[in-house]
Design brief:
Blueprint: H1 18-27, E1 29-32, H2 38-55, H3 57-60, H4 67-81, H5 83-94, H6 97-106, H7 109-116, E2 124-134, E3 161-167, E4 179-180, E5 192-195, E6 204-207, E7 218-219, E8 227-231, E9 236-237, E10 248-257
Antiparallel strand pairs: 1-8, 2-10, 3-8, 3-10, 4-7, 4-9, 5-6
Helix pairs in contact: 2-4, 2-5, 2-6, 4-5
């Protein structure tokens, strides 16, 4: 009889204490340090490396590239040479089993439940498990000042839903890490200015300047084993990656409360864009 060895993954038993809960409720966000298993992060990055390599065959050819070069220099080159290929990479990662497995493996639902005040896991909902990469000096997909609650309408009150923001590599000012406006969640969801997506530019729900202009701003500096929980009504913005050759990788998943009377589950419509792949150029 053979013995099956289980993958050694650290179970996440992080408990939110009263002080942390107060900090989250007061400021609208909470950063927890050294709570995720970096082995799981590395496994996801291995998959990202695999997907980029699939699309980069015609660029790589007989050359030897390291994992770091594929994740940075090669992806940047793909974006420059053929933006449609970087869109294919992005959508392939976001619809993969590997990404679903990642969110299950990091085991953060108990932390989300504690922050949302949910006792029964059956009342915990999710929306938009997502992966993103921010290319140096590419403003097309930067999210300017916004509240996530204008993108995601599952719950009316920010206190009933949140976003878990997870750095997959180091996140810091120069590579465009998130900028927060503490306490702005207390204004609730406010009307925003909507701009449609076009070409390779993302849609935007932009806050009115009055919400964030004259308040303190804080930048998230984080390592791959850190996590930030952000109230959906908190005003925040992506930074711009001003590095030369360092792609910023992050993952996000939104948690909501399904037993609230006003809860509205989303209906997603499938779209299948035509991609101009590198191999066809």
């Amino acid at each position: 009889y053979s013995v099956l060895k289980k993958t050694e993954i650290k179970m996440n038993k992080t408990t939110i204490n009263e002080e942390q809960l107060k900090e989250y409720n007061d400021n609208g966000y909470l950063i927890l340090r050294n709570v995720l298993d970096v082995k799981i992060i590395d496994k996801l990055l291995d998959f990202v490396f695999h997907v980029i390599s699939l699309e980069a065959k015609s660029l790589i050819k007989d050359k030897q590239y390291s994992k770091n070069e594929i994740l940075n220099d090669v992806l940047i080159k793909i974006k420059q040479v053929n933006p449609s290929s970087s869109s294919w990479i992005f959508q392939t990662i976001n619809t993969s089993y590997a990404l679903i497995e990642f969110f299950v493996s990091i085991n953060i639902e108990n932390m989300a439940m504690q922050l949302l005040g949910i006792k029964d896991k059956n009342n915990l909902g999710t929306v938009s498990p997502a992966f993103r990469f921010d290319i140096p000096n590419d403003p097309n997909n930067v999210r300017t000042w916004h509240q996530d609650s204008n993108y995601f309408l599952e719950n009316k009150k920010g206190i009933n839903h949140l976003v878990a923001w997870i750095p997959i590599n180091d996140a810091y000012s120069d590579n465009g890490s998130v900028l927060l406006a503490p306490k702005t969640h207390k204004s609730g969801r406010l009307k925003s200015n909507y701009t449609k997506n076009h070409g390779f530019k993302s849609e935007q729900y932009v806050c009115d300047k009055s919400l964030y202009e004259n308040v303190e701003k804080r930048k998230i500096d984080a390592k791959p084993d850190d996590i930030a929980f952000i109230n959906m009504d908190l005003a925040h913005s992506s930074g711009v990656n001003i590095t030369k050759n360092s792609v910023r990788y992050t993952a996000q998943i939104r948690f909501n409360t399904i037993n609230k009377k006003e809860y509205r589950p989303v209906v997603l419509k499938a779209e299948y864009p035509i991609y101009d792949r590198l191999e066809n150029l």
